[in-house]
Design brief:
Order of helices and strands of chain A: HHHHHHHHHHHHHH
Largest interface: A-B, 23 and 34 residues
Distance between the termini of chain A: 24 Å
Oligomer: heterodimer
Helix content of chain B: 25-40%
Number of strands of chain A: 0
Number of helices of chain B: 9
Helix content of chain A: over 70%
Structural class of chain B: alpha/beta
Shape of chain A: globular
Number of helices of chain A: 14
Structural class of chain A: mainly alpha
Strand content of chain A: under 5%
């Protein structure tokens, strides 16, 4: 059993990341060739680059990384290969938090309120999850807890939709829920990037604890791991990273589920070593999907969240089948 | 010499009093076996001695200090613990898993040369060198047991506390593991404390036996003094006789009372 060298893996992922970032800046309904980059500043293409493509690309990178790292950290802590912010209902609760701010129309008063609502939802979600299932860490309880959170969150969102006082709010909520990188502004970038960075930073600090948790709760504690501190880092980290991502782009599912699986064999299955590669793979996945969505020859652009679900659904099904074979 | 001493330890789990006033002293350089019927509180006592559970009442002393007051990292460097359930969550290489035993020593730069030396030593001691690059998920129960023992040894602890380390191993591996624990205690001066179900093993391997029944200590002393028909009758409710075989004492369990 040999995993490939870490340096090679990181180089390959970074290369893909840079290539796709360039692609993301260039590609779209309007092609922005390299020559435009060196043109005089009043070239109209510059507006596209500066106001549309750059924020869209940066957000794609940040959100992909946040979701990839969050998924890897949740899977590592729960020792459950089916865990991810989407499956466990964390994204849905973040969406509910954000929808509440849209519903009450308070987003106009401060651009920070929507992200704040999303993060409150996400952190609350992880906290409830750890309370419900933290002690047992059995696969079944976690998935059930996630199903409960998802149900509660979607019921809340449905309630907000049905009670929505004006069609404008309704439209905004629906659009936003589907998850997309379209028409994000630089202020979205400035708000979400620091929060995502902070969240991912907190998650990186759990790496050693996640490694030790391979030996179970007792094993990890006997190795001096502070599980309460790890849980706190995890709740805040996933809450900030996922919450800020959802606030910026809506719900983009399956990234956090898929990328740890793709990267795990390449890092020798070490949960701590999986965090960064999983994050990088998340950026690659989101950027690639976003470019494909942009280039689809449809009148209205397909939402990224929807496209990801279309890709992710069958993957999830396949994963379940493989796991069932292994467990049964 | 540092002793590990339980002083009047009480533990309550839910509405069950698991340990009620357990006092016992453990020494370095000895193999201690904690025996007793199912539900006697053996595992709970062991987790108290490992600093993984705070007694509701009473104290576990590590030398002169309260074990629970020692920082977790330092405690983990000095007291190794082998859980009963051989849990391994991910399909890592055996050597990687053994490396997790170095967790309390690892600085910010990852595994050092010293860590590698300790891992190699653990591989040699447990005779697992040929398993080092195998996926732990593909190991047999016995192989996995040996790798997990190596994981505990990789930390080179002063104390090794093992919860039923011999369960699930075939007789050959049981003897190997028992021999390993004796070597650790007698040659390296490690304090080995393990819970056991196999009374023969306790008789043959241990220097010191503690018999626990219903949360109390029933007997505490050398194996031959402690594992007597009277005490076994009280602890397990069985008729036993101790005979002297060609290679040492044997315990024969005759029938239930």
């Amino acid at each position: 059993m040999r995993s490939i060298s870490a340096r090679f893996l990181y180089s390959a992922l970074l290369f893909a990341l840079v290539t796709l970032s360039c692609g993301s800046l260039i590609a779209g309904k309007v092609w922005v060739p390299w020559s435009a980059w060196f043109a005089v500043n009043d070239d109209p293409l510059w507006v596209i680059i500066l106001e549309l493509r750059i924020p869209r690309t940066i957000l794609g990178v940040a959100v992909g990384f946040a979701l990839g790292v969050s998924g890897a950290a949740l899977q590592g802590y729960t020792r459950n290969p089916l865990a991810d912010p989407g499956v466990l209902g964390v994204s849905a609760l973040a969406a509910l938090g954000a929808v509440m701010t849209l519903f009450f129309g308070v987003t106009i008063s401060s651009p920070w309120l929507l992200p704040l609502g999303a993060m409150t939802g996400a952190i609350g979600g992880v906290a409830v999850l750890l309370l419900l299932a933290g002690a047992t860490s059995s696969v079944l309880t976690f998935i059930l807890a996630g199903a409960i959170l998802n149900t509660v969150a979607s019921a809340g969102v449905a309630l907000a939709l049905s009670l929505s006082p004006n069609p404008w709010a309704l439209n905004e909520i629906v659009n936003w829920l589907m998850g997309s990188l379209v028409d994000r502004s630089n202020s979205d970038v400035f708000i979400s990037i620091p929060l995502i960075a902070l969240g991912c930073g907190l998650l990186m600090m759990t790496a050693r604890a996640l490694d030790a948790l391979t030996l179970g709760d007792m094993g990890a504690r006997s190795l001096g791991v502070n599980l309460a501190a790890t849980r706190l880092l995890l709740a805040l980290g996933v809450g900030l990273a996922t919450g800020a991502s959802v606030a910026a782009t809506g719900v983009i599912g399956f990234v956090g589920l898929v990328t740890p699986h793709l990267m795990r064999p390449l890092v020798g299955a070490r949960p701590g070593a999986l965090l960064i590669p999983s994050g990088l793979a998340g950026t690659v996945l989101v950027l690639a999907a976003d470019i494909i969505v942009r280039l689809m020859p449809s009148v209205v652009e397909i939402k990224l969240g929807v496209a990801m679900a279309v890709l992710g659904g069958p993957f999830f099904l396949g994963l379940l089948l493989v796991l069932r074979r292994r467990l049964g | 010499m540092t002793h590990l001493v339980a002083e009047n330890v009480h533990v309550r789990l839910g509405d069950r009093q698991v340990l009620s006033g357990v006092s016992a002293s453990f020494s370095l350089g000895q193999v201690t076996a904690i025996v007793g019927p199912n539900g006697a509180g053996k595992s709970t006592l062991l987790s108290c001695l490992a600093g993984l559970r705070a007694p509701d009442q009473g104290v576990v002393k590590f030398g002169d200090d309260d074990l629970m007051k020692i920082p977790a990292r330092e405690r983990a460097q000095r007291v190794g613990f082998l859980p009963q359930i051989p849990e391994v969550a991910w399909a890592v290489e055996a050597r990687t898993l053994i490396g997790f035993g170095r967790t309390p020593f690892i600085g910010s730069r990852g595994l050092s040369v010293e860590d590698d030396v300790a891992i190699e030593r653990a591989l040699v001691m447990t005779n697992t060198l040929d398993l080092a690059h195998r996926n732990v998920m593909t190991l047999s129960g016995g192989e996995r047991g040996r790798v997990l023992i190596a994981r505990a040894l990789a930390g080179q602890p002063e104390w090794l506390l093992a919860d039923e380390p011999l369960t699930g191993l075939d007789p050959g591996f049981q003897l190997d593991a028992a021999e390993l624990f004796r070597t650790l205690a007698h040659k390296d001066g490690c304090g080995v404390i393990m819970t056991l179900h196999d009374l023969h093993m306790a008789l043959r391997v241990a220097d010191h036996v503690v018999v626990l029944a219903d949360g109390h200590i029933l007997a505490d002393g050398t194996p031959i003094d402690v594992l007597t028909p009277a005490i076994l009758a009280e602890a397990y409710g069985v008729d036993a006789s101790i005979t002297h075989g060609k290679h040492g004492p044997l315990i024969e369990i005759l029938r239930c009372r």
